[in-house]
Structures are given as structure tokens and as C-alpha cells.
Amino acid sequence: VSLGVLQAGRIAFDPALPVAKQEAIDRIGMGLFNAIALRFRHAFWPEHVHAIAHGGDVWGRFPVFTNLMKYTGEPILLAYVPARYENALESMRDEETYAGALEVLRTMYGSSVPEPTRAARTRWGASPFAGGAYSYNRLGQKPFDRATLAAPVADRVFFAGEAASKDRYGCAAGAYLTGLNAADQILKVAGHANVFT
């Protein structure tokens, strides 16, 4: 489960987690970041570019659109929204978020930018299965907190995920590598040789 789920106390541990582990969970920051995908009938933007940056008057208001057409052949733009802009749009209705992204695109490419044929968005903070988008080093966090989070409890409960990674927190690589490490720990307890690391 994500750090956000652990921080929200959505899982009851019996016996309770060690105090040091719970303190580490509470100290590590959980960040918010969302994405909006807009699919169009055709591309009205340069198809060969990776991303389109927007420098507007409001910090974080759809600053970057990733051009998925370059990688998928589909006319899709993926807009990113950091927490500092309207709390990453967590409380906005879907229609408002799509309209905001379209307004920025029309500022860049003109009023002829069409309505998308489909749209979707993330809402990581509101998700009961996530409680946020990624971990970060928060003020007051201890240097050993991520290692404390990653440590197994009594060789019975094992922890992995990007928040448990010392060097690659905040990204999928951290989640993957700590998952391999936790799998090796489980195999070792079960009496098998390490096969993942």
C-alpha cells in the first residue's frame, strides 16, 4: 500500500507497528500531483516534440503538456498539475479541470483548439488506495526514516514502495527495486536463496 494509506491509518496492525516505524511513516512527506489526459480527433500541436511548456501568470496552472502522440501515435496531451495550483485540482469537478486545460491550450494555439473527444484525470489525494501521489523529504524527517519504513517487522510483515527507497523515492523505479528487495527478504525467511537481487 502507499505511504498515504499508512499515514491515514486505513490498515489496523495487530500487534501495532513498532513506534519507530510509525514515527518514520508520519515524518515522511506525501506529495500531491495530478494529471489530465485530453484526447483529440487530430493533433493541432507539433507532433515531434516531447512536451509543450506553458509559462503563464499563475504558477502551476497546467505548466506542461506531454505529447503522447510522439510515443503512441494517438492525439493525446497529458497535462500535469502540481499541488501548489488549486491543491492539484483535487476538489474541482472534472469538467472544470478539463475546461482549465483547454483554456491554456487555446491561449497557446488559438481559439480554434477543438473540444477533446475524451478526457480523464487522476485524483491521487482523494483515492482511498493512494492518499497522495509520491513521497518526498519533508522538513523534520530523519535521515534513517526511509530505511526504518523499509525494514520488515518480525520477519512477518514486509514493506516496499517508492517511499521505502532511500535513493529513488518519488518514482516507479524506487517502488520496483524495493519490491524486489522485499521479495528477497521473504524468500530468505522461507529458506530460499535470493533470486531477485
Summarize the structure.
With 197 residues, the protein is α+β, with helices and mostly antiparallel strands.
Helical stretch tally: 6
Q: Give the overall shape, derived from the CA principal axes.
A: elongated
Query: What would you call the structural class?
Result: alpha+beta
Largest sheet: 5 strands, antiparallel
Unreliable residue runs: none
Taking the alpha carbons of the first and last residues, their distance comes to 22 Å
CA radius of gyration:
20 Å
Order of helices and strands: HHEEEEHEHEEHH
How many beta strands in the DSSP annotation? Answer: 7
Fraction in beta strands: 15-25%
- Strand arrangement, major sheet: 3-4-5-2-6
User: Could you report the average pLDDT, rounded to the nearest whole number?
Assistant: 93
- Helical fraction: 25-40%
